[in-house]
Specification:
about 350 residues; alpha/beta; three-stranded antiparallel beta sheet
Length: about 350
């Protein structure tokens, strides 16, 4: 009897052990390609805005993939898949494989991006008034002593919300007696949305909706959640004098949230070039073979429910950038000063 019980116990333990063994994960090239394609098919909300037929593209590229496909060819097909979206929040990062992918942002070689040089701004326009905040994110000073200038390099502050607010307060207070303000977000590659909204809140005297957020809710590519408003609320002492906002094609993500918020204000005029056109938050994920990818997961629209994904925010005054050899300096900033002198 004891032998029978022992045998039953051993069989039970063996069965439990088998049930605890993880199922075999398919990491073959076709499976990895489909995994990436399917993740975007389930979650990505901007196929319509970016005019991409995801089903057709997936079928076309997957036909090239077989179990014998080598890593470099698999990466090329997957990168081509993601490149079709032209989305600065979408990228592929293969681990343990040396291969260039689409991690670079769009428009980085455009004239407006190539011309902007913060050293030239500090040296030729701010001079001895040039200063930098404790985090290094805000470069500020005075032009002709009467115009305040603040360049925001990014909203990815790491010291905490209260310290960021204190830093912004300090910089604005140092320029409070100027007659106009130039806020420069050229080259701003984003960061925390709350930091962007907090900065913009210093320029409004009334609450207003500046953006609506949506996410995917179903397998259908166009089924999205109800639009959720983002509000811009005044905070502390607010600036109501003229503001010029400088933008370029390298302004992206939280930089575009800030731009969108500022463009709702009556005392703000935007000058420069169109922004990147990538407003969503970013989701970083891992494929079954360990390769990494990032995905945009929101559809964001302005206060009038117009989506600018893939297009960007067009400035009120667009500036043509001539060859620097003929017109050295900062053409956009020079145009801003001409505007304020009118």
């Amino acid at each position: 009897m004891k032998r029978l019980l022992l045998l039953i116990l051993l069989i039970a333990i063996s069965g439990c052990a088998d049930s605890l063994v993880a199922p075999q994960v398919d990491t073959s090239p076709p499976a990895i390609f489909h995994e990436l394609w399917n993740e975007f098919a389930l979650r990505y909300p901007n196929f319509d805005s970016r005019h991409v037929n995801w089903d057709s593209l997936g079928a076309y590229l997957s036909a090239r993939i077989t179990p014998a496909t080598v890593d470099t060819d698999l990466i090329l097909a997957m990168d081509s898949l993601l490149m079709s979206l032209h989305d600065g929040h979408v990228s592929l990062t293969p681990t343990h494989v040396q291969y260039p992918t689409n991690a670079k942002l769009r428009y980085e070689n455009t004239d407006s991006v190539q011309e902007f040089n913060l050293h030239i701004v500090s040296q030729d326009y701010l001079g001895e008034t040039a200063n930098i905040s404790s985090s290094g994110k805000l470069i500020f000073g005075r032009i002709h002593d009467t115009i305040g200038y603040i360049h925001i390099t990014g909203f990815d502050e790491t010291e905490g919300e209260s310290l960021w607010q204190s830093e912004v307060d300090s910089v604005l207070q140092s320029l409070w007696d100027t007659k106009a303000m130039i806020v420069d977000v050229r080259g701003n590659i984003g960061g925390e949305a709350y930091s962007a909204t907090d900065f913009a809140s210093r320029f409004t005297k009334s609450s207003r909706i500046f953006l609506y957020e949506q996410e995917r809710v179903d397998h259908s590519y166009t089924d999205l959640s109800a639009p959720q408003p983002e509000w811009l609320n005044p905070r502390g002492a607010t600036w109501s004098k003229p503001v010029v906002l400088l933008t370029d094609r390298f302004c992206i993500s939280a930089g575009e949230w800030f731009t969108l918020a500022m463009k709702t204000l009556p005392n703000v005029t935007s000058i420069g070039d169109t922004t990147q056109g990538a407003f969503s938050g970013r989701l970083d994920r891992e494929l079954s073979n360990g390769w990494l990818y990032s995905m945009a997961f929101q559809k964001n629209s302005d206060a009038n429910h117009v989506c600018h994904e893939g297009i960007g925010l067009i400035p009120d005054i667009e500036v043509y950038i001539p060859p620097r050899i003929a017109f050295p300096g900062d053409t956009v900033l020079r145009r801003a000063l001409q505007f304020l002198a009118q």
